[in-house]
Design a protein that fits this description.
It is a single chain. The protein has five helices and five strands. The chain is of the alpha+beta class. Strands 2-3-1-5-4 form a five-stranded antiparallel β-sheet. The longest helix is centred in the first third of the chain and has 18 residues.
Length: 190
């Protein structure tokens, strides 16, 4: 029997039926689902120091369990000493099994390790997608703090099939993302 991530099973058994009931969907195909997770690190300092980019690429690959690729600049910006085609960041696009595994580690392990954590903001992009900014990569257990040369931040974008921000919010809330006002919003809708 093949391995199935816990969050994928939970989506099929608990989350999808709960969302069908909450939004009165007629078909299970209308229920929003997580399409992909994109983890991105912009490395402005990489223009001066190429070694930083390699370190960030290796760390991001270790965090996500998938090889990170370099992103390159699209145009020349003389004020930043940037030329078209120069490497300026790293990113990973996670889908299916690795996506669910990463989300489970993020919700259960990494976010609770953030110092003075109050919850995450619920600011969506208007099309059902959510981007979470993480200021330090050391919240992930895969990173050895003793070997860190520089603290890097990252953006984690959750791309959903939801049509509205309300549906995407409900989906991510059911997955366990700790939004700041989750309890207030749930009480207001009931």
């Amino acid at each position: 029997m093949a391995y199935v991530p816990t969050f994928k099973t939970e989506y099929k058994q608990r989350i999808a039926p709960a969302l069908m009931k909450e939004f009165d969907y007629k078909s299970v195909m209308q229920v929003p689902r997580l399409e992909k997770i994109v983890v991105n690190q912009g490395m402005g300092q990489a223009v001066a120091d190429k070694k930083l980019l390699e370190v960030a690429q290796e760390e991001l690959s270790r965090i996500t369990g998938q090889r990170a690729v370099q992103t390159r600049s699209k145009k020349d910006i003389s004020n930043f000493k940037l030329r078209k085609g120069m490497p300026i960041g790293v990113r990973v696009t996670l889908r299916d099994r690795k996506m669910y595994e990463f989300m489970e580690r993020l919700v259960a392990v990494a976010l609770p390790r953030v110092r003075d954590f109050q919850g995450i903001n619920e600011k969506f992009d208007g099309r059902g997608n959510y981007t979470l900014g993480i200021t330090e990569q050391i919240i992930f257990p895969e990173i050895d703090i003793d070997k860190i040369t520089k603290i890097f931040g990252m953006e984690v974008t959750f791309v959903t099939t939801a049509d509205t921000d309300t549906e995407a919010y409900a989906l991510l809330r059911e997955f366990g993302l700790p939004f700041k006002n989750a309890k207030k919003k749930v009480a207001a809708t009931e």
